[in-house]
Amino acid sequence: NAGVTQTPKFQVLKTGQSMTLQCAQDMNHEYMSWYRQDPGMGLRLIHYSVGAGITDQGEVPNGYNVSRSTTEDFPLRLLSAAPSQTSVYFCASRAYMGGNSPLHFGNGTRLTVT
Amino acid sequence: SQQGEEDPQALSIQEGENATMNCSYKTSINNLQWYRQNSGRGLVHLILIRSNEREKHSGRLRVTLDTSKKSSSLLITASRAADTASYFCATDARGTSGSRLTFGEGTQLTVNP
């Protein structure tokens, strides 16, 4: 199993550009989520999904859109990038939406917005 | 705001010593989890302790949970240089659409050979 795969690994955007961060998992997990990691801030939840067709907002959803059309994929869209979105983004999945299961993380996408 | 807060923010020890990291949280939880992150990589799950458990062991790891004090500790015994990493606690609480994990800011552990 590949686990959780994120692409790209690195990306540089100009302010106002849009892009999609890709995330795919091959473990048939119901639950998928996106976090951003900034120095001194730990990981903050952006959006999450408990199954295909169902998404919900986390702590810091503004500026980001998500959709979940399949169990495997959970892309994160930045519609108009801002320097404040410079961060490392992690996608993570877990088997059960009800909890008591660990998150499996991808290796991250390092995004710089100039 | 972060649910979990780790203490200390940074810890430097010698190989062979024990390392203890603490986590405090604010609201009721289903479980608490500890993760490790090596530089430039994603987080890796270490151990999960449920709200009705008080202590759990996994190899050189020992986790305690005190729900009355809303706190947890992670003990790594006989540390090795390879244990150098950031360690995060995450609290698992029920949200409006299933449960969600909230992470603290982490403890940076350095184990000197």
Major interchain interface with per-chain residue totals: A-B, 30 and 29 residues
Taking pLDDT < 50 over at least 5 consecutive residues as the criterion, the unreliable ranges of chain A are none
Instruction: Give the amount of beta strand of chain B, in percent.
Output: over 45%
Strand content of chain A: over 45%
SSE order of chain A, as H and E? EEEEEEEEEEE
The largest β sheet of chain B comes out as: 6 strands, mixed
Question: Looking at the structure, what is the overall shape of chain B?
Answer: globular
Integer average pLDDT of chain B: 91
* Multimeric state: heterodimer
The helix/strand order of chain B is: EEEEEEEEEEE
What is the percent of helical residues of chain B? under 10%
What percent of residues of chain A adopt helix (DSSP H or I)? under 10%
- Taking all residues together, what is the mean pLDDT of chain A? 93
